[in-house]
Request: fold
Amino acid sequence: MNGAQSVVGTLLGSGVEVCFANPGTSEMHFVAALEDAAPDGTRMRAVLGLFEGVVTGMADGYGRMAGKPAVTLLHLGPGLANGLANLHNARRAGTPVVNIVGDHATYHVQYDAPLTSDVEGVARPMSDWVHTSTGALAAAADTARAVQAAMQYPRQVATLILPADAAWSPAEGSAPALPFAAPAPVADAAIARVAGLLGNGRGTAILLAGDSLGEQALLTAGRIAAATGARLLCDTFTPRLPRGAGRVPIERIPYFAEQIVGLFAQIDQVVLVGAKAPVAFFAYPDKPSKGLADSTTVSVLAHPHEDGPAALTALAEAVGALRTPVVLAERQVDGSTEGRFDQFGIGRIIAAHLPEGAIVSEEAATSSLGSQIALVTSVPHEVLSLMGGSIGQGLPLATGAAVACPDRKVVCLHGDGGAMYTLQALWTQARERLDVTTVVFANRRYAILDIELGRVGATGNEVAGRMFDLADPELQWVDLARGMGVEGVRVTTLAEFSAAFASAMRSRGPRLIEVMV
Amino acid sequence: MNGAQSVVGTLLGSGVEVCFANPGTSEMHFVAALEDAAPDGTRMRAVLGLFEGVVTGMADGYGRMAGKPAVTLLHLGPGLANGLANLHNARRAGTPVVNIVGDHATYHVQYDAPLTSDVEGVARPMSDWVHTSTGALAAAADTARAVQAAMQYPRQVATLILPADAAWSPAEGSAPALPFAAPAPVADAAIARVAGLLGNGRGTAILLAGDSLGEQALLTAGRIAAATGARLLCDTFTPRLPRGAGRVPIERIPYFAEQIVGLFAQIDQVVLVGAKAPVAFFAYPDKPSKGLADSTTVSVLAHPHEDGPAALTALAEAVGALRTPVVLAERQVDGSTEGRFDQFGIGRIIAAHLPEGAIVSEEAATSSLGSQIALVTSVPHEVLSLMGGSIGQGLPLATGAAVACPDRKVVCLHGDGGAMYTLQALWTQARERLDVTTVVFANRRYAILDIELGRVGATGNEVAGRMFDLADPELQWVDLARGMGVEGVRVTTLAEFSAAFASAMRSRGPRLIEVMV
Reply:
């Protein structure tokens, strides 16, 4: 057994079943070891991505849905660098990810060959945990520690750098899986304090994040809200939000700073459950960065690393809300093809045809509001958003989610600008026969920047206009999809969209619909 | 005038004329300032890339050809991260590049908004110089220093982080351009020492790199070789190599470690001119990392930061070779469409039709040898190779070179696997009407990894085979190109290739030829 085999065996023994990979020469022994079965016969599922940003984005989508890490396989510093943006997003999502990054053999680094770089330095900004194996004898134990680090609550990005000679030299065997620590319990005092606040008559918002947005936790929070009159809020972007009929409706905090301030002007006190106090996404001249008024008080029921769902149950008990009735969303859809061909019409049709249990990966930027509104009353489903703001996540996220949940339909709603960053994900969808329908909103602009230019107080001009313009030449998404083995169709009316989307929902496999909004 | 305007004015004043950009909200003032003209009326040319790896790769291609930096405009830590791999390649090429990376407003960082990251940490591994402007009053001076750093011999990657409030706050004006230090002179003693070695009767190789591969320096080196019997060598990969008829032929060091060792086994002493001693690209079990035998002696004529071309002239004088005749390559081409449809046949046809002064961006990996052999006797042209080993450079490199040299035909020879990393460059080629012909060698494999798997001593198996396989689904490059506004054609015979390539050489504008090797 060599080091790479000991690493793969340790991953399998630690419950890691999927490897998203874009390997190179220094990862060849790891690739060869992917064939090895664990003692119980399980093998790693190896999924190739044609660009590393696809690989790490898939790991994010997989980890969000599976609740445990996939492993990525990346090639040296530059390969890791190509994956950093989506690791940033995964980290902001609280997704467990283990990266295995090959490096030159330990004795080869001194020669400064062309691919030599400071791999730890590349890893650190987007990793919670970084370690370089010193050799084959340590690699298995390091791997078990990396998985443990990824599972540290509320989940982390762990990067293990594996020198080529640590992979090819003899090892002593796989390491046993390490225990994963449970989330920290919330102190009784915090629960009692918040219970007291909920009865003080002030206007209250409960801001939920992370696992506290799970379906059961959300129901408990709904009971607390119903019993106490508090409003339920979540961040603009959430890693995984149950939505649709039978779920507790929750208000999303709006995107723009002045809208956030407007919302919280109505609220006297905020209770955080796994969440942070809201802030503006960007700074703007003469606009506040903080979302809350200075007069708004903030209380923490549960920090992100604590057990928010259990704290909600204890809080419900403390305020007598364990069985309080709660109004759940009801299915109410309108799939008519009358009306304007815009994101609101598109959103209505998506909501009318979405199958139960669907997973919606959403990165539609200025085209997202239509479906957001309509999907609240669609069938029960889950929505995954872009968490770190680095665009180019939606396609790989959908791809990884489809790997994790092969029996659920995945729908990816994406802006055309953002989709160009990691379009290679379509190839993996075709290769793995994944059940993903991608809707590209082709407005042929970085439309958000048209808005932001004015909001930051800069003055538009011809050069700036051209920097936001994707119309010359016009991207042809049907061609791009065909080029990677995915069937696509361009639609220019609601009727065409309805026919294409309904057909995609009835069949399996990757599809793309280019919506000429 | 705001900080962003002072930065753009300083760049123009320092000779920086082109901005390769992929901006976001925090760069809006910089984008707006791109419209401003310098006192002499010059304006920055702004070139949009749809992915940051394209942006930095274009800056590398531009900088290699222009001999001065372009500026890139990148969005926060993740946007910079997406550009790191091609910055690694640029740095290994010794290309001057100035990156301007927007960051959150200084006072906004404390709120840990979703896009917050350690931007300096992201920059450092692939930058020679990193600085964060503390405000608008400092931004212009910092910019002049960044350009000076980029031009520090032998050229560097300089990254200036510009917080949003440093861009939008009032500034006092542009900063004057700073002087660029000349390369250090080579000591007379080094020249005398090497002149002595060249007469000692031992088998000698002169290894040239960087500016010492310029056309005139190469001619001088050729005279020295002719006078002394030394062999002229260059690295496997070179940033910019004059090649073809009328140029001094030079041997490229082969790629694989055992071939390097084989070459240098015939050589007793090596003289380095701007070069480093050769090493293997990767380590392999039981193969040497060093390219030279222990018995081979190494002498430095010029370090990379020293004036290699002047040292060659002085050396030629010292050995009496200033007017020694040298055998130059003669044009000898064979454009016949008889023979096998493989890289060698393709290479012959490329060599037969290449126009004089063409720039060849080469990242064809296992398909590169055919054109390398044939082009030695083509018309005079220059070849730019992948310097840092991080694949996905060739398309953007060609794009940037075409921006720098609008009157020269650019030909990009690329493997299909590598081309998928930064295929978005094709869109910029169409947008800017650049005169680039891309030849994609579609072998539908990571074919180099088939070779490397065996070379590192790993055993192939079904999983590994599938990790190198790009045939399921088959990439359709003509569709991919059309999706980005570039006309493409697939060819399956030498006659078809010859017709397509000859046609592309006669017309202007971007084209793509998919070669089904």
About this structure: Chain B touches chain A through 100 residues (CB under 8 Å). The CA atoms of residues 177 and 433 of chain B lie 32 Å apart.
